[in-house]
Protein backbone atom coordinates (compact mmCIF):
# COMPACT_ATOMS: atom_id res chain seq x y z
CA UNK A 1 0.00 0.00 0.00
CA UNK A 2 1.38 3.36 -0.99
CA UNK A 3 0.51 6.40 1.05
CA UNK A 4 0.14 9.44 -1.16
CA UNK A 5 0.55 12.12 1.46
CA UNK A 6 4.05 11.39 2.68
CA UNK A 7 5.13 13.99 5.17
CA UNK A 8 8.42 15.61 4.19
CA UNK A 9 9.57 17.45 7.26
CA UNK A 10 11.30 20.77 7.47
CA UNK A 11 14.50 20.05 9.42
CA UNK A 12 15.84 22.40 12.08
CA UNK A 13 19.14 22.09 13.94
CA UNK A 14 19.64 23.47 17.43
CA UNK A 15 23.17 23.34 18.83
CA UNK A 16 24.34 24.11 22.34
CA UNK A 17 26.24 22.67 25.22
CA UNK A 18 24.13 20.76 27.71
CA UNK A 19 22.44 22.87 30.36
CA UNK A 20 22.31 25.89 28.08
CA UNK A 21 18.58 26.21 27.60
CA UNK A 22 17.82 23.90 24.67
CA UNK A 23 14.79 22.30 26.26
CA UNK A 24 13.43 25.66 27.34
CA UNK A 25 13.86 26.92 23.78
CA UNK A 26 12.09 23.83 22.43
CA UNK A 27 9.15 24.41 24.75
CA UNK A 28 8.86 27.97 23.45
CA UNK A 29 9.12 26.77 19.85
CA UNK A 30 6.46 24.08 20.08
CA UNK A 31 4.19 26.56 21.85
CA UNK A 32 4.45 28.94 18.88
CA UNK A 33 3.27 26.03 16.73
CA UNK A 34 0.32 25.66 19.04
CA UNK A 35 0.99 22.56 21.12
CA UNK A 36 3.07 21.33 24.02
CA UNK A 37 5.61 18.62 23.29
CA UNK A 38 5.46 15.40 25.30
CA UNK A 39 7.59 12.25 25.50
CA UNK A 40 6.38 9.47 23.16
CA UNK A 41 3.42 7.60 24.65
CA UNK A 42 3.93 4.03 25.73
CA UNK A 43 7.61 4.01 24.87
CA UNK A 44 10.84 3.93 26.84
CA UNK A 45 10.33 6.27 29.81
CA UNK A 46 13.95 7.38 29.40
CA UNK A 47 13.41 8.43 25.76
CA UNK A 48 14.91 11.84 24.99
CA UNK A 49 12.37 12.57 22.26
CA UNK A 50 9.59 15.14 22.49
CA UNK A 51 6.54 15.04 20.24
CA UNK A 52 3.78 17.58 19.60
CA UNK A 53 1.10 17.73 16.87
CA UNK A 54 3.49 19.35 14.45
CA UNK A 55 6.96 18.87 15.81
CA UNK A 56 9.28 16.07 16.84
CA UNK A 57 12.44 16.98 18.71
CA UNK A 58 15.17 14.39 18.95
CA UNK A 59 18.28 14.68 21.09
CA UNK A 60 21.51 13.90 19.29
CA UNK A 61 22.92 12.20 22.39
CA UNK A 62 21.00 9.24 21.00
CA UNK A 63 23.76 8.91 18.39
CA UNK A 64 26.44 8.30 21.00
CA UNK A 65 28.42 5.34 19.68
CA UNK A 66 30.18 4.93 23.00
CA UNK A 67 28.15 4.56 26.16
CA UNK A 68 29.30 5.99 29.49
CA UNK A 69 31.60 3.04 30.22
CA UNK A 70 32.96 3.05 26.69
CA UNK A 71 33.78 6.75 26.94
CA UNK A 72 35.51 6.22 30.25
CA UNK A 73 37.57 3.33 28.89
CA UNK A 74 38.65 5.23 25.82
CA UNK A 75 39.13 8.47 27.74
CA UNK A 76 36.87 10.51 25.47
CA UNK A 77 34.03 12.86 26.40
CA UNK A 78 30.53 12.92 24.90
CA UNK A 79 31.62 16.04 23.00
CA UNK A 80 34.28 14.11 21.09
CA UNK A 81 33.22 13.06 17.58
CA UNK A 82 34.74 9.64 18.30
CA UNK A 83 31.96 9.05 20.84
CA UNK A 84 29.27 9.74 18.22
CA UNK A 85 27.99 7.92 15.14
CA UNK A 86 27.69 10.59 12.45
CA UNK A 87 27.07 8.08 9.66
CA UNK A 88 23.93 6.84 11.36
CA UNK A 89 22.89 10.39 12.28
CA UNK A 90 23.19 11.40 8.63
CA UNK A 91 21.37 8.36 7.28
CA UNK A 92 18.48 8.76 9.70
CA UNK A 93 18.03 12.53 9.35
CA UNK A 94 18.13 12.07 5.58
CA UNK A 95 15.56 9.27 5.75
CA UNK A 96 13.20 11.36 7.89
CA UNK A 97 13.63 14.31 5.55
CA UNK A 98 12.57 12.04 2.69
CA UNK A 99 9.47 11.04 4.61
CA UNK A 100 10.63 7.65 5.89
CA UNK A 101 10.18 6.16 9.34
CA UNK A 102 13.34 5.41 11.28
CA UNK A 103 14.39 3.30 14.24
CA UNK A 104 16.53 5.62 16.25
CA UNK A 105 18.75 4.46 19.10
CA UNK A 106 18.15 5.83 22.59
CA UNK A 107 20.97 6.99 24.83
CA UNK A 108 19.72 6.49 28.36
CA UNK A 109 20.94 9.40 30.47
CA UNK A 110 20.03 7.58 33.67
CA UNK A 111 21.97 4.37 33.08
CA UNK A 112 24.54 5.74 30.62
CA UNK A 113 23.73 2.83 28.28
CA UNK A 114 22.33 2.56 24.78
CA UNK A 115 18.75 1.28 24.96
CA UNK A 116 16.82 -0.52 22.20
CA UNK A 117 15.73 1.87 19.44
CA UNK A 118 12.42 3.72 19.18
CA UNK A 119 10.36 4.28 16.06
CA UNK A 120 10.22 7.88 14.81
CA UNK A 121 7.77 8.82 12.07
CA UNK A 122 8.23 11.96 9.96
CA UNK A 123 6.55 15.02 11.52
CA UNK A 124 5.92 18.40 9.92
CA UNK A 125 8.89 19.92 11.72
CA UNK A 126 11.81 17.75 12.75
CA UNK A 127 14.24 19.31 15.21
CA UNK A 128 17.62 17.81 15.97
CA UNK A 129 19.00 19.29 19.17
CA UNK A 130 22.23 18.57 20.89
CA UNK A 131 25.95 18.95 20.83
CA UNK A 132 26.65 18.34 17.12
CA UNK A 133 23.81 19.19 14.71
CA UNK A 134 26.14 21.24 12.49
CA UNK A 135 29.36 19.27 12.98
CA UNK A 136 29.07 16.83 10.08
CA UNK A 137 28.80 18.52 6.70
CA UNK A 138 26.33 15.94 5.39
CA UNK A 139 23.96 16.49 8.30
CA UNK A 140 24.45 20.26 8.11
CA UNK A 141 23.38 20.27 4.47
CA UNK A 142 20.09 18.64 5.42
CA UNK A 143 19.12 21.51 7.73
CA UNK A 144 16.57 24.02 6.51
CA UNK A 145 17.48 26.31 9.41
CA UNK A 146 20.05 26.20 12.17
CA UNK A 147 20.41 27.88 15.54
CA UNK A 148 23.32 28.02 17.96
CA UNK A 149 22.85 28.98 21.62
CA UNK A 150 26.11 30.61 22.59
CA UNK A 151 26.30 30.92 26.36
CA UNK A 152 29.41 32.70 27.63
CA UNK A 153 31.53 30.94 30.24
CA UNK A 154 30.51 33.35 33.00
CA UNK A 155 26.81 32.79 32.38
CA UNK A 156 27.18 29.04 31.90
CA UNK A 157 28.88 28.92 35.27
CA UNK A 158 26.11 30.92 36.93
CA UNK A 159 23.41 28.64 35.45
CA UNK A 160 25.27 25.46 36.37
CA UNK A 161 25.71 26.65 39.93
CA UNK A 162 22.03 27.40 40.16
CA UNK A 163 21.07 23.96 38.89
CA UNK A 164 23.81 21.62 40.09
CA UNK A 165 24.44 23.24 43.43
CA UNK A 166 20.89 24.13 44.36
CA UNK A 167 19.14 21.12 42.87
CA UNK A 168 21.76 18.38 42.76
CA UNK A 169 23.95 19.20 45.75
CA UNK A 170 27.25 19.51 43.85
CA UNK A 171 30.07 21.68 45.25
CA UNK A 172 31.31 24.89 43.67
CA UNK A 173 34.70 23.27 43.04
CA UNK A 174 33.23 20.22 41.33
CA UNK A 175 31.11 22.40 39.04
CA UNK A 176 34.13 24.50 38.16
CA UNK A 177 36.16 21.33 37.54
CA UNK A 178 33.53 19.75 35.29
CA UNK A 179 33.27 22.91 33.18
CA UNK A 180 37.07 23.10 32.91
CA UNK A 181 37.30 19.43 31.93
CA UNK A 182 34.79 19.89 29.10
CA UNK A 183 36.35 23.09 27.83
CA UNK A 184 39.03 21.74 25.43
CA UNK A 185 36.55 19.48 23.63
CA UNK A 186 33.87 22.14 23.74
CA UNK A 187 36.24 24.62 22.07
CA UNK A 188 37.39 22.06 19.52
CA UNK A 189 34.10 20.44 18.49
CA UNK A 190 31.06 22.38 19.69
CA UNK A 191 31.84 26.07 19.58
CA UNK A 192 33.06 26.14 15.91
CA UNK A 193 29.58 25.12 14.77
CA UNK A 194 28.29 28.63 15.43
CA UNK A 195 29.86 29.85 12.20
CA UNK A 196 27.33 27.73 10.30
CA UNK A 197 24.24 28.85 12.23
CA UNK A 198 21.56 30.95 10.54
CA UNK A 199 20.75 32.48 13.92
CA UNK A 200 22.89 32.68 17.05
CA UNK A 201 21.60 33.67 20.46
CA UNK A 202 24.61 34.89 22.38
CA UNK A 203 24.26 35.30 26.14
CA UNK A 204 26.75 37.54 27.93
CA UNK A 205 27.07 39.23 31.31
CA UNK A 206 25.45 42.65 31.51
CA UNK A 207 27.35 45.79 30.68
CA UNK A 208 24.92 47.90 32.68
CA UNK A 209 26.46 46.99 36.03
CA UNK A 210 30.20 47.66 36.31
CA UNK A 211 32.18 44.47 37.06
CA UNK A 212 29.06 42.37 37.41
CA UNK A 213 29.88 38.80 38.34
CA UNK A 214 26.51 37.60 39.50
CA UNK A 215 25.36 36.53 36.04
CA UNK A 216 21.74 37.41 36.85
CA UNK A 217 21.31 40.38 34.54
CA UNK A 218 22.13 39.39 30.97
CA UNK A 219 23.12 41.02 27.73
CA UNK A 220 21.70 38.93 24.90
CA UNK A 221 22.43 39.23 21.20
CA UNK A 222 20.38 37.81 18.38
CA UNK A 223 22.74 37.41 15.43
CA UNK A 224 20.81 36.83 12.20
CA UNK A 225 22.49 35.83 8.96
CA UNK A 226 21.55 37.86 5.89
CA UNK A 227 20.57 36.15 2.67
CA UNK A 228 19.12 32.99 4.20
CA UNK A 229 16.21 31.68 2.17
CA UNK A 230 12.83 32.14 3.88
CA UNK A 231 14.39 34.10 6.74
CA UNK A 232 14.06 37.87 7.00
CA UNK A 233 15.92 39.23 10.01
CA UNK A 234 14.02 41.22 12.61
CA UNK A 235 14.90 44.89 12.90
CA UNK A 236 14.49 47.81 15.26
CA UNK A 237 13.09 51.10 13.89
CA UNK A 238 14.78 51.09 10.49
CA UNK A 239 16.27 48.16 8.62
CA UNK A 240 20.03 48.32 8.14
CA UNK A 241 20.64 51.34 10.34
CA UNK A 242 22.47 51.32 13.67
CA UNK A 243 20.46 52.19 16.72
CA UNK A 244 20.87 52.32 20.44
CA UNK A 245 17.62 52.58 22.37
CA UNK A 246 16.75 52.95 26.02
CA UNK A 247 13.02 52.18 26.20
CA UNK A 248 12.72 52.93 29.92
CA UNK A 249 10.53 55.82 30.91
CA UNK A 250 6.86 56.55 30.69
CA UNK A 251 5.92 53.49 28.68
CA UNK A 252 8.26 50.91 30.18
CA UNK A 253 8.95 50.47 33.86
CA UNK A 254 12.59 49.70 34.53
CA UNK A 255 14.35 49.27 37.82
CA UNK A 256 18.11 49.24 38.25
CA UNK A 257 20.13 48.70 36.05
CA UNK A 258 17.58 49.49 33.33
CA UNK A 259 17.25 48.16 29.79
CA UNK A 260 19.19 48.96 26.68
CA UNK A 261 18.53 47.77 23.15
CA UNK A 262 20.88 47.99 20.20
CA UNK A 263 20.49 47.05 16.56
CA UNK A 264 22.70 47.20 13.52
CA UNK A 265 24.55 45.41 10.75
CA UNK A 266 27.77 43.52 11.47
CA UNK A 267 29.88 40.65 10.19
CA UNK A 268 30.10 37.26 11.88
CA UNK A 269 32.67 34.73 10.69
CA UNK A 270 32.81 36.55 7.38
CA UNK A 271 29.02 36.58 6.93
CA UNK A 272 26.86 39.66 6.75
CA UNK A 273 24.51 39.67 9.74
CA UNK A 274 22.00 41.85 11.54
CA UNK A 275 22.36 41.97 15.29
CA UNK A 276 19.63 42.83 17.76
CA UNK A 277 20.76 43.21 21.33
CA UNK A 278 19.02 43.56 24.66
CA UNK A 279 20.81 44.24 27.93
CA UNK A 280 18.86 44.21 31.21
CA UNK A 281 15.53 42.78 32.26
CA UNK A 282 11.84 43.57 32.19
CA UNK A 283 10.01 44.49 35.38
CA UNK A 284 6.58 44.07 33.88
CA UNK A 285 6.11 41.59 31.09
CA UNK A 286 2.80 43.06 29.92
CA UNK A 287 4.66 46.25 28.97
CA UNK A 288 6.72 44.24 26.49
CA UNK A 289 4.09 45.23 23.91
CA UNK A 290 5.78 48.64 23.85
CA UNK A 291 9.07 47.06 22.77
CA UNK A 292 7.30 44.68 20.38
CA UNK A 293 5.62 47.61 18.63
CA UNK A 294 9.05 49.00 17.70
CA UNK A 295 10.34 45.74 16.22
CA UNK A 296 9.62 44.84 12.60
CA UNK A 297 9.69 41.63 10.55
CA UNK A 298 8.65 39.63 13.59
CA UNK A 299 6.57 37.17 11.55
CA UNK A 300 3.74 37.44 14.07
CA UNK A 301 0.21 36.56 12.96
CA UNK A 302 -1.33 39.37 14.99
CA UNK A 303 -0.18 42.47 16.85
CA UNK A 304 1.10 41.51 20.28
CA UNK A 305 1.83 37.84 19.60
CA UNK A 306 5.38 38.06 20.98
CA UNK A 307 4.10 39.61 24.20
CA UNK A 308 1.34 37.04 24.42
CA UNK A 309 3.81 34.15 24.06
CA UNK A 310 6.12 35.64 26.66
CA UNK A 311 3.26 36.15 29.12
CA UNK A 312 2.00 32.63 28.51
CA UNK A 313 5.35 31.18 29.57
CA UNK A 314 6.36 33.75 32.16
CA UNK A 315 7.49 30.88 34.39
CA UNK A 316 10.13 29.60 31.92
CA UNK A 317 13.73 30.58 32.63
CA UNK A 318 14.74 33.77 30.84
CA UNK A 319 11.25 35.18 30.37
CA UNK A 320 12.19 38.56 31.80
CA UNK A 321 15.18 39.09 29.53
CA UNK A 322 16.60 38.82 26.01
CA UNK A 323 16.99 35.02 26.15
CA UNK A 324 13.24 34.43 26.35
CA UNK A 325 12.43 37.30 23.99
CA UNK A 326 14.85 36.16 21.30
CA UNK A 327 13.95 32.49 21.65
CA UNK A 328 10.31 33.47 21.12
CA UNK A 329 11.21 35.58 18.09
CA UNK A 330 13.28 32.77 16.56
CA UNK A 331 10.32 30.45 17.15
CA UNK A 332 8.10 32.81 15.14
CA UNK A 333 10.69 33.02 12.37
CA UNK A 334 10.81 29.21 12.20
CA UNK A 335 7.02 29.05 11.92
CA UNK A 336 7.22 31.56 9.06
CA UNK A 337 10.03 29.61 7.37
CA UNK A 338 8.00 26.42 7.67
CA UNK A 339 4.91 28.05 6.17
CA UNK A 340 6.93 29.49 3.30
CA UNK A 341 8.52 26.14 2.51
CA UNK A 342 5.15 24.40 2.55
CA UNK A 343 3.66 27.07 0.30
CA UNK A 344 6.60 26.85 -2.06
CA UNK A 345 6.21 23.09 -2.31
CA UNK A 346 2.55 23.56 -3.09
CA UNK A 347 3.65 25.79 -5.95
CA UNK A 348 2.09 28.93 -4.58
CA UNK A 349 4.71 31.34 -3.34
CA UNK A 350 3.38 33.48 -0.50
CA UNK A 351 4.73 36.67 0.93
CA UNK A 352 6.21 36.14 4.36
CA UNK A 353 4.19 37.60 7.19
CA UNK A 354 5.32 41.16 7.69
CA UNK A 355 3.60 42.40 10.79
P1 LIG B 1 19.37 22.01 28.20
O1 LIG B 1 18.16 21.41 27.58
O2 LIG B 1 20.27 22.65 27.19
O3 LIG B 1 20.12 21.07 29.07
P2 LIG B 1 17.53 23.54 29.90
O4 LIG B 1 16.60 24.29 29.02
O5 LIG B 1 17.01 22.31 30.55
O6 LIG B 1 18.91 23.22 29.13
O7 LIG B 1 18.06 24.52 31.00
C1 LIG B 1 18.95 24.05 31.97
C2 LIG B 1 18.99 25.00 33.16
O8 LIG B 1 19.71 26.18 32.77
C3 LIG B 1 17.63 25.50 33.63
O9 LIG B 1 17.06 24.66 34.58
C4 LIG B 1 17.97 26.84 34.22
O10 LIG B 1 18.47 26.69 35.51
C5 LIG B 1 19.10 27.30 33.35
N1 LIG B 1 18.62 28.16 32.26
C6 LIG B 1 18.31 27.80 31.00
N2 LIG B 1 17.92 28.84 30.29
C7 LIG B 1 17.99 29.91 31.10
C8 LIG B 1 17.73 31.30 30.95
N3 LIG B 1 17.34 31.79 29.78
N4 LIG B 1 17.90 32.10 32.00
C9 LIG B 1 18.33 31.61 33.19
N5 LIG B 1 18.59 30.32 33.40
C10 LIG B 1 18.44 29.47 32.38
C1 LIG C 1 25.28 13.59 27.51
C2 LIG C 1 25.39 15.07 27.45
C3 LIG C 1 26.80 15.51 27.63
C4 LIG C 1 27.31 14.96 28.93
C5 LIG C 1 27.16 13.46 28.95
C6 LIG C 1 27.56 12.88 30.28
O1 LIG C 1 25.85 12.98 26.41
O2 LIG C 1 24.92 15.60 26.24
O3 LIG C 1 26.87 16.89 27.61
O4 LIG C 1 28.65 15.31 29.09
O5 LIG C 1 25.85 13.07 28.69
O6 LIG C 1 28.62 12.11 29.99
P1 LIG C 1 29.27 11.12 31.06
O7 LIG C 1 30.42 10.56 30.26
O8 LIG C 1 29.66 12.03 32.18
O9 LIG C 1 28.21 10.17 31.37
Protein architecture, described:
The chain has 9 helices and 14 strands. The chain is 29% helix and 23% strand. It has a domain at 6-150: Rossmann fold, CATH 3.40.50. It has helices spanning 22-32, 68-74, 86-97, 137-140, 153-165, 172-190, 288-292, 305-312, 322-345; strands at 10-15, 50-51, 55-59, 102-107, 114-120, 125-130, 145-151, 199-205, 218-225, 235-236, 243-245, 259-268, 271-280, 295-296. The relative contact order is 0.13. The mean pLDDT is 93. It has a 10-stranded mixed beta sheet. Strands 4-5 form a two-stranded antiparallel sheet. The protein has a two-stranded antiparallel ribbon with strand order 10-14. It has 355 residues and is of the alpha/beta class. The longest helix is centred in the C-terminal third of the chain and has 24 residues, at 322-345. 6-O-phosphono-alpha-D-glucopyranose is lined by residues 18, 61, 68, 71, 78, 112, 131.
Q: What does the secondary structure layout of this molecule look like, with pairings?
A:
Layout: E1 10-15, H1 22-32, E2 50-51, E3 55-59, H2 68-74, H3 86-97, E4 102-107, E5 114-120, E6 125-130, H4 137-140, E7 145-151, H5 153-165, H6 172-190, E8 199-205, E9 218-225, E10 235-236, E11 243-245, E12 259-268, E13 271-280, H7 288-292, E14 295-296, H8 305-312, H9 322-345
Parallel strand pairs: 1-6, 1-7, 3-6, 7-8
Antiparallel strand pairs: 2-3, 4-5, 8-9, 9-13, 10-14, 11-12, 12-13
The protein binds adenosine-5'-diphosphate (ADP) and 6-O-phosphono-alpha-D-glucopyranose.
Amino acid sequence: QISCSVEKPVVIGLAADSGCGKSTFMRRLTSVFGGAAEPPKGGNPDSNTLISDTTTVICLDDYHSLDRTGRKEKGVTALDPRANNFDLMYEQVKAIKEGQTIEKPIYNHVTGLLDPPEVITPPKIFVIEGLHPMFDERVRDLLDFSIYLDISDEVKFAWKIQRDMAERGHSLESIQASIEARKPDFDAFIDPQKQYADAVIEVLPTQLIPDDNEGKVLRVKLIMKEGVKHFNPVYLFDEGSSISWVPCGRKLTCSYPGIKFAYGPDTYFGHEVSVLEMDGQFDRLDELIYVESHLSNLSTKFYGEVTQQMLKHADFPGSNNGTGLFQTIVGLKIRDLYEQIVAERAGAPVESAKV
